[in-house]
Amino acid sequence: MKLLVILLFSGLITGCGGNSSRSLPSKLLLVSFDGFRADYLQNYEFPHLQNFIKEGVLVEHVKNVFITKTFPNHYSIVTGLYEESHGIVANSMYDVITKKHFSDFDDKDPFWWNEAVPIWVTNQLQENRSSAAAMWPGTDVPIHNTTPSYFMNYSSSVSFEERLNNITMWLMNSNPPVTFATLYWEEPDASGHKYGPEDKENMYRVLKEVDDLIGELVHKLKVLGLWENLNVIITSDHGMTQCSKDKLINLDLCIDRSSYTLVDLTPVAAVLPKINTTEVYNKLKVCNPHMNVYLKEDIPARFHYQHNDRIQPIILVADEGWTIVLNKSLPKLGDHGYDNSLSSMHPFLAAHGPVFHKGYKHSTINSVDIYPMMCHILGLKPHPNNGTFGHTKCLLVDQWCINLPEAIGIVIGVLLVLTTLTCLIIIMQNRLSVPRPFSRLQLQEDDDDPLIE
Ligand SMILES: *[C@@H]1O[C@H](CO)[C@@H](O)[C@H](O)[C@H]1NC(C)=O
Ligand SMILES: *[C@@H]1O[C@H](CO)[C@@H](O)[C@H](O)[C@H]1NC(C)=O
Ligand SMILES: *[C@@H]1O[C@H](CO)[C@@H](O)[C@H](O)[C@H]1NC(C)=O
Ligand SMILES: *[C@@H]1O[C@H](CO)[C@@H](O)[C@H](O)[C@H]1NC(C)=O
Ligand SMILES: *[C@@H]1O[C@H](CO)[C@@H](O)[C@H](O)[C@H]1NC(C)=O
Ligand SMILES: *[C@@H]1O[C@H](CO)[C@@H](O)[C@H](O)[C@H]1NC(C)=O
Ligand SMILES: *[C@@H]1O[C@H](CO)[C@@H](O)[C@H](O)[C@H]1NC(C)=O
Ligand SMILES: [Zn+2]
């Protein structure tokens, strides 16, 4: 028994402390397919992605951050921070102090990004290594005066093939080597907005195209000889839910447009009152039962969405599927941005490569947990963040992990064995020490027997 324990431990120690992961720096490619809702995986067919998962790991639900929009969530993945801490609190922002505006078309001022340090910058500053980006929000901005060594200016018209060709070229021939790379694609988000996720026919077509792109990605990595040694994470920023023309919240019915500035509209509106915050709040509060209205200081703590100057004095949060408008008809059949506890807002995560287990399924992690895991893979010291490395240990071959059901099983098992043993011991002791009246009776009967005979 002792020998077995010693053997187990020495095995663990050599397994963890071996130089296999330290001799060459691990390489990591982080891929995002925008708006890939977690349950698309259950409801549609993805032959290429399923092959990728079969030889790797799958996290079925990634709990992302509020508000569940593209820029904020992509920045949380690469910083491990909630939005209030990394400063990209929406796709449209206004800073009252500097009077600067931010939008997804006007995002290049480092001012907006400098509240955090994304992993591609850390990768280049901590070690003599390069980062490369075939797009990802922020990768074409000099954050802390540093862009990835190789990057593309954002343009939706660059094809997936060109993004893939260039990112693999950079991964292959660069000095110092590219150890961290990103690849971003606009689908299935764009079609999710256009058709709505309940349009099975159109979503089937679009998701098949996405799966074919994953097939191309894996094929290209294999042809170039990158597949065996490269770690690849495929994930997304948020999900998508169906909207309806019957679920409109028209602010114009409740309050005069001239009394506030609308910094961001739907499904989470950011409201900057012009004169009297209380008055604006009181009017909005009774506007529609399908919209929660919060003064900044009352925003629920679970959103982690309060402590930043870029969060406006009043925010409006529409219920799932409801759309906030200014006296207009429904703009989109699908949308996201809603409460991050809604499972329709969650993406998934799949990963493949030498650092990941093969054929392992995990139910859930937080999107902020991805950052400490990526730092571990790259051997980087993480900046302070809101993620928990322990949540991702079960995905990694160099970590020891017991997941919760297993742990509960083991504890119950041990308790059962202990209880059984205790009962047995008590019964045995009772048998040995207490003389049993019944056995005496029998003896007496035995004594009587000869008399009868
Ligand atoms: C450690 O690394 C060296 C080369 O850096 C290699 O020759 C050796 O086999 C490695 N040992 C283990 C246990 O991986
Ligand atoms: C991709 O690489 C090719 C060849 O080096 C280059 O001509 C092209 O501009 C690159 N594409 C982008 C979007 O940077
Ligand atoms: C990105 O755009 C800027 C300004 O338009 C230009 O100066 C720069 O060379 C471009 N960078 C790349 C990598 O294409
Ligand atoms: C970084 O790596 C390159 C190429 O591998 C090398 O030429 C350079 O001297 C290295 N710099 C440092 C500071 O180690
Ligand atoms: C909405 O717009 C229409 C014209 O498009 C106008 O007649 C109506 O008064 C507006 N309603 C509100 C509440 O502003
Ligand atoms: C703001 O409006 C509220 C409610 O209408 C009112 O009680 C309060 O006096 C106003 N405050 C200011 C500074 O005008
Ligand atoms: C998130 O992490 C940052 C950086 O460590 C920290 O300042 C902030 O308080 C954390 N937020 C929460 C809710 O713990
Ligand atoms: Zn979107």
Report on the architecture of this protein:
The longest helix is centred in the last third of the chain and has 30 residues, at 404-433. The strands form five sheets. This protein has an eight-stranded mixed β-sheet with strand order 6-5-7-1-8-17-2-18, sandwiched between helices. A four-stranded antiparallel β-sheet has the order 11-12-14-13, covered by helices on one side. With 453 residues, it is an alpha/beta fold. Helix content is 36%, strand content 18%. α4 (47-54) crosses α10 and α8 runs parallel beside α10 (200-223). One 2-acetamido-2-deoxy-beta-D-glucopyranose is lined by residues 252-253, 327.
Rg of Cα set: 29 Å
* CATH-derived topology of the largest domain: Alkaline Phosphatase, subunit A
Q: Tell me, what's the shape?
A: globular
Number of helices: 14
User: Into which percentage range does the β-strand content fall?
Assistant: 15-25%
**What small molecules does this complex bind?**
2-acetamido-2-deoxy-beta-D-glucopyranose, zinc ion
